[in-house]
Predict the structure.
Amino acid sequence: MKDKPKYKQIIEAAVEVIAENGYHASQVSKIAKKAKVADGTIYLYFKNKEDILISVFREKMGTFIDGAKRAIDDEQTANDKLFKLIEMHYSQLSESPYLAIVTQLELRQSKSELRHEINKVLKSYLDVIDSVIEFGLETGEIDKKFNPQLIRQMIFGTLDESVTTWVMKSQRYQLVEQVEEMHTLLTKGFFK
Amino acid sequence: MKDKPKYKQIIEAAVEVIAENGYHASQVSKIAKKAKVADGTIYLYFKNKEDILISVFREKMGTFIDGAKRAIDDEQTANDKLFKLIEMHYSQLSESPYLAIVTQLELRQSKSELRHEINKVLKSYLDVIDSVIEFGLETGEIDKKFNPQLIRQMIFGTLDESVTTWVMKSQRYQLVEQVEEMHTLLTKGFFK
Amino acid sequence: MKDKPKYKQIIEAAVEVIAENGYHASQVSKIAKKAKVADGTIYLYFKNKEDILISVFREKMGTFIDGAKRAIDDEQTANDKLFKLIEMHYSQLSESPYLAIVTQLELRQSKSELRHEINKVLKSYLDVIDSVIEFGLETGEIDKKFNPQLIRQMIFGTLDESVTTWVMKSQRYQLVEQVEEMHTLLTKGFFK
Amino acid sequence: MKDKPKYKQIIEAAVEVIAENGYHASQVSKIAKKAKVADGTIYLYFKNKEDILISVFREKMGTFIDGAKRAIDDEQTANDKLFKLIEMHYSQLSESPYLAIVTQLELRQSKSELRHEINKVLKSYLDVIDSVIEFGLETGEIDKKFNPQLIRQMIFGTLDESVTTWVMKSQRYQLVEQVEEMHTLLTKGFFK
DNA sequence: GATGAATGAGAATTCATTCAT
DNA sequence: TATGAATGAATTCTCATTCAT
């Protein structure tokens, strides 16, 4: 009952409601009902509906990014850091099926203002990827001839697309089993 | 039906209206106005609003996919085919800035049902990518140890993310200049 | 069926709904129902709810003011003009009991923005009163020592208050029977 | 109850909040905040929001009416009594700019039920005016041919309208300077 | 007496779609 | 075919009031 329980209740309810009903069918009243609070209570903790959604993303991505950061800090090479990053990306989303649906499918349907806020949060994650690339450039593991931005686009694009595929296939296979192969594909390419 | 001039007028109007106003501010009446037809006329050519948007995607992606297919058919190696694929992906979207905005940003805001239909169309493009991978496996250019699905996710994810980045940066740089480097990154990876 | 019948239908319905239910209980849907149109139709003719109310006032006061103007134009002396003004003020409101309720009681409950618009319309009526005073000053009927603004406040305040009293007493007596006495009171005062 | 300090705090806070924010933006929570009490505390002293507003009017008008009564009691003629009445009406409102705004503009926006209660309070003031007229009829200063109700409507309507004009012109001129001229206008009329 | 977190009813407006002409 | 006026369902947010502490 401590530490603003209602705030967390509402956040968790929002994730579930969006995952179950889809972004466009997620009325405030539905979220309130699932959180077991009155509609008006929502507005004691959030400015408006958009604020709920941004907060969901911020809270959840915050944890996600922190997890990724901590994991790669433990590793000594860019190669290992990248491996860990892929592993964390897959494992964290695997463990929160609702969150995966929300981030990969539903929240992308939001209108521009909200998307803008979401992109800000996403930026922090891209920064983490950039830091791994930067590290690899320093250690010499990655060739300096490459544009780091393109490398990052490849890494994030690949991870994002593979998770989306997994979500759209109803999360029916084990994402984490792909870690090693994806790591090899990204670092070595697929041509002999 | 699809040969009628009004049908094409409406499709073209829809692309422009969505690119200029964003998905959520693209009312049927706006599309009708830009197409210079009455609101009701729209419904003589399309079942409903969703049908317009799917048709936009189908028509435009059809041309896009045909272009890609024709281009890779001319090449003899998987390596060259992939190079051409990347080049066509970038060049075709570069030449249709409106279309790029619509496919990369706006249409992704549509609700799940529409997204489902869009994914069907997208499937044809993924099939083209798959055919290149298939070809590479047959010629031995690509190692059989890799899961082709993962390779495809990497290729598509990378292309898609790089175009989205370019659109979000207001298309301020030349996408096609990245073709060669992206091709190297995908085929050889970025590790020494 | 000619000359924007829906517009007038809605205006008339609005007057009745406000008079019967009071300003605060006059929902758009109630007005639409009484006008026998769909809720959405209202918005083809009016920008928003406030616009309906302003239009009601403008339309009705327009007629009211025109009536007053035409009546005083026929008279040759300030004395007669004032008499006619009082007569028209009373008779026009007597003939439209709903309108009287709306202008004397309900519309005064509106919020500042709307009140502002209403005051603009009211200003035209005050101008008519001012023109009578002006005329009287020119003919010498009214002593130049008086501040015309104060005279106008006395005339309008008296008429307004007497109509409000009549409305609040449920319009149970004949307002027009007071014309002559009110005219005497205003012009000669009530002291011997 | 009415002697409790919190009661008076809330009344004073209400006047200020309404004058500063307008009737429609005067939430109970705002009044509570300005009165430095909790929202719930309000309901220990007042039945509901309407009760606050009526009490504001009752308390303030009580003082106002008492002032007027005392002033006219000192005078010996109806003429002097009326003069004093006008003077007190103007001076008391001049000295309480907030109160003037609240009574002339904001409280008139309240819904009919509240207006009804306000009118009851106002009735006491009209009684005071009536007593002056009565006195004048007895002394013979006022002609018995006039309907006293109409005289009262003229006096109150004129005073009320002139104060409203002054408030709407942002209280930029001296109301009390008009006392003498208004008195002349009311008693003698403005026709030669 | 005092608090303030929680409640939940209530209403304006948009826009895809229809159908009489 | 083509029109466009009319339809009406659907949802966020505010704020007076309560009541457990």
About this structure: Residues 151 and 157 of chain D are 10 Å apart (CA to CA). The longest helix of chain D spans residues 112-139.
